[in-house]
Structures are given as C-alpha cells and as structure tokens.
From TrEMBL:
Pathway terms, separated by semicolons: Secondary metabolite biosynthesis
Region (Disordered): 217-285
Superkingdom, taxonomy of origin: Eukaryota
Protein name: Cytochrome P450
Pfam families in the record: p450 (PF00067)
GO MF annotation, one: heme binding
Amino acid sequence: MATLPDLVYALFFSILAVYIYIRPSLVSSSNSKGLPYPPGPKPLPILGNVLDIKPKELWVQALRWAELYGPITHLSLLSSIHLVFINTHEAALELLEQKGGVYADKPGLVMCGDMCGCKNMVAFTPYGAQSKRQRRLLHKAFAAPVIPTYHPLLLSSTRGLLTALMGQRMGGKGMFESIKRYAGSITLSVVYGYEVKAPGGGSSTFSGVMVNGNANGASMNGSTPSPTSSPSRPRPTKTVLAQKGHGREQQERLYANANGHQHGNGHGHAQGGSGAEEQEEEERDPFLKMATECVNILSQEIASGGGIWLVDVFPRLRNIPRWVEPFPFMGFKAKARVWKKKMEDWVDGPWEWTLKSMKENTHKPSFCSTLLEDLALQNGEGVDQETKDNFEFDLKWTANSMYGASIDTTLTTLTNFIINMIQNPDAQRKAQEEIDRVLEESGDSDRLPTFQDRKNLVYCEALYKECLRWSASVPLSLPHRLMEDDIYKGMFIPKGSLVFANIWAMMRDPNVYPDPDAFKPERFLDLDGSGSGSVSKEEAKRMNPKNFVFGFGRRTCPGKELVESSVWLVIVSLLTVFSLSKAKDDEGNEQELKIEYENPIFRVPEEFGCDIRPRSERAVRLVQSFEELVGV
Ligand code: HEM
C-alpha cells in the first residue's frame, strides 16, 4: 500500500510533469537587457517565492522586505509571474504616477476575471477604452465638487448609524453590521436610489440623494424635499445637562434610557443570542447581504494570496474535464461556477430593481436613473443601439463597483478608529473636549457637528488623518499590471509584472512618521498646509495620508472625496455622542481587547467587543430626537 510520503512524492512529480508539459505557454521571464531584477527574498528552484506569500497580513511581511531591500522588492512565482512591491512614496510617484500610462493596467487573471465573472468590475477592468469610460462615470458621481450635494444624505445616514449603535452597546457583530449597513446604504441610495431595509423593517437610509449637482427629490425634479431629506438638523429640547463625570451607575441609567429597556452589564461578547442573530440574518437587506457575501468571496477567496490560482499560471487547466475536478488542486473550476453565479446576481439585482422602478415610475432619482433618463432623452438625437447598449453595460458594472468598493473599506477605517479610541483614551478625550468647546462657542451646543464646524475642529482633523494612516485600510492597494518592460534605478521590471503599492510600508515609515505604530494625532497638528507651522507646504502634502491610502496613478480610488466627508462626519459624530472603551465583564472589569486581522486584502479587524456608551443624557436625546424625526 502506498504510504503518505509516496503520495506526496507522486503528487509533486505529477505537478512537475504538468509544469514541464505546459511551460512553453507561459509568459517569458527572461531579462534580455542583462540588468538585475529589484532585490527580494531568494526564490526556490521552480517554485520561486510561492512559499513566501502568506495570505494572512502579507503587508507585515512586505514591510520587512521593504526594510531589507529598499524602495522596491521583487518576487517570482513558478519563475513566470513577477511580483513587485513599491515601498516608498518617491518610487510610487516615479513609477505609478509619472509613468502612469504603463502602470495602469490590471492583471486580467483567468480565475478572477474570466471564470468568476469579475472582469468588468472597475477594479479589474484592463486599462483602455472601457476603464476610461467607467472612470468618467465614477467621476460624475464622486468628484470633489459633487460631494457637498451628498451632505444632507451623509448627515442623515450618520445619524441613522448613531441610532443603530445606541442599541449595540457591546460592539461585535451588531456594530460591524451597523457600519456595513451605513456604508452600503449611502452608495445604494446614491447609485440606485435604493433604500436599504433596516433590521426589523423600515428603511435605514434617510435619502436626499444628489447627482451631478442636482438634489434628488429636491431641485432635480423641482419638488420639495421630504422632511427626511432635509439637511436641517433635529433639535432636542433645550435642557442643558451635566455632560461630564458620569459614574458607572449613571452611565448604566443612560443606557437603560437609550434602549428603552436594557439595564445590564456589558459583556465582553458582543454578539446577541443565536436566535436573535438568526432573526437578524433573515431581516438583513437582500442587496446588502449579497454585497457582503460577494465582497467576502472576492477578498477572502478569489483574491486571497495575490489572486493567483494554478489556472492563472497554467491557463490550459481551464479546460479540465469535470471528472478531474475532485483531484487535489483541481477544485477551482467547481468553485468558480458557484462564485460566478453569485457575482452575476449581485451585479444584476440592484440594476434590475432600478430599471423596474423606473418603468413603474416609483423610482427615486439616482446616479443610474438620471444617466438612463439622459440617455433616453438623447434617443431622438442619433444615439444608435450599440452605443446605448455599451453605455448601459458600463453603467451597470460601474454602479456595482461603487457600492461593492465602499462597504469593506469604510468598515475597515471605522472599526480601526474605534480600536484606537479604546486604546487611546487621551486622544478620545481631547477630541471630545474640542467638539464640546466648538459647539458651545457656536452658541448652540444641543446639536451634532456639521461640515460647517470642520474648520474649527483642528484636533479632530488631525485625528481623522491619523486614522487613515494608522488603518491603511487597503495596505497593499490593488495590483496593477505593468504594460511594458521598465527600468528603475538600473533594475529591470519585466512587462506583465503585478505591481503592488506598499501603502503599509509608506504609512509605517519612521522617517516620515516617527514611532509609526503609535496612534498620535498630534503628528498632524501642524499640517494645515499653510506653511505657517514648523512644517513646509511640501512636507504637509508629503505627510497627508490622503495622498497614499487611496492608491496611486490612474487607478487611484474614485471614492476618496466621498470618504473625506463621510468618514470624517461619522468620526466626529460618534465622538460627540459616545464614550468608547473596552468591553466589561459582569463585575464591570475591563476585558482585554484582542484584535486579529485575517482578511488578505482589507485590514479589517475580526469582530471585537467593546463598550459604547452615550456620554450624557443630552447625547441620548440628540440621537433619540432624530429617531423620532424620521421614525426609525
Ligand atoms: C476608507 C475608504 C477607502 C479606501 C481606503 C479606499 C482605497 C482604495 C484603494 C487603495 C484602491 C486601489 C487603487 C489603485 O489600484 O491604485 C481603491 C480602488 C477603488 N475604490 Fe476605493 N477606497 C475607499 C472607499 C471607496 C468608496 C467609498 C468607493 C465608492 C464610492 C470606492 C471605490 C473604488 C473603486 C471603484 C476602485 C477601483 C478603481 C480602479 O481600479 O480604477 N472606494 N480604493
């Protein structure tokens, strides 16, 4: 009988045989110019650096390589695929920005793009006519000048999130779901005019969407905005209450008031009972559920480990017959069939919903409906069927990319913000004192901050920047594909290389950010960009994480201006209303905060428990008055 080692050897030699057989079809990796590749960990024969690529927190390893090898690191897989990590801001500017035209392509992976049906999602579209059309559409929706038109939606959605978190005193799954619902509801509303179903029925979006500078539901169709779409803030009764120094007992009472019934201790485990979870699961909005599932499949399965599957190295494996599928390493085809179907449903679902509601004239104006109506108006003006079909195709896939890309990124930044507030009570206190003072000085302290307060919230601005830096939500950005051979400082980077901007290494560079692992908003206090402080304008620009964390060059994140407003507002609103601290056990003792990062693409922490408490009765009423206003 064959022993286990025999089987392992048999498997190894079978793979080797297949490799030798198929190898002529691979991309040539020869360096005809006689220049060295950039430095990197030593590759093994045949396998190359396969064993160096870890799916968990690859950025930690990539930072070590950056420290060892300098501005660029090179790895090879099976001596045919080149991976290049760009580790410094200077190298990123020189390559990804200045030579943007040749670094803007996407890998075109067989498994992800073709077999799982993702090739038309913006983040995977090859650089060319289609990607340019898609990015023009994205620009229409999320360019900086358009963002103020979303402020009413952001204000009301943020208040919806505060309401949801009021009921999630122990953090964990409930908190994560609430943040995802918040992020997804904004883009679903902007993009499709779809209002996300809140758990327990009703809508969790308080819409007032605007596209291309027109206020949906308001100036765009000439009608008066609904009360829920009004940017005006809810006003609680004007009883001024002591805001500070609540003891534990008083805090408990606040919570009991806030939740109408709860008066227990905060347990470290945030999740409710399994029955409640099951019920919540059933009540989750169908489109958000699809988005969560598909983004998880994309980031945790398809794109895990750089997104390279055996079939990407040996494309002929795509044609294996069904009977081969149960063999080791051959299960990819069966997986791809299931995932492709899910991706198609995810793209088609909200799109079909918009078309149907437009047909029934029940739709809310949105990015899709506005552009489709514009197209319909042009029909008499010689727009042929092919142009129309192409436009609809681009719009459908771009729309999906917007809401797909917004959920986990926003979740990552906000959950890392919460971690930092728990671990840095001083920073939390300073920010809260600043908010209290600014609201007081405005003559109306019974309100939440708005965008008009931003210029006065200097410490909060620094704290927001430090959150972007510390979180580095997409630490290795998304891979680009080099379209031509390139040379950088005498090193050869071959055409076809997969290029990763090592945002993590840039955000942890001790020369730019001393003590880089520490959360220190103070490092940004001098950076108003005026050049009046101790830091020059250039240095301020160079340090601003906004210029890093959204990627580089022609594929940089199109949602960054939205994030600049949405995430800032959530951060200052949460700080106004809640005190964030470690989870407590039954005796009220603080529990250790354990944070794990498992996701291979986003630096999103695994669910963790915490203690979310209203800071005062006034804070409770601020949130409740909004609940009453919109009837959530
Ligand atoms: C904190 C939040 C966010 C962060 C840190 C973030 C970061 C990134 C990064 C690093 C990339 C890759 C850029 C590159 O390839 O060079 C990216 C791409 C992208 N992001 Fe974001 N993002 C965020 C939020 C959003 C939001 C809210 C949206 C949509 C409204 C969005 C839409 C996209 C799209 C469509 C792409 C693909 C662009 C392309 O390949 O052309 N992102 N994002």
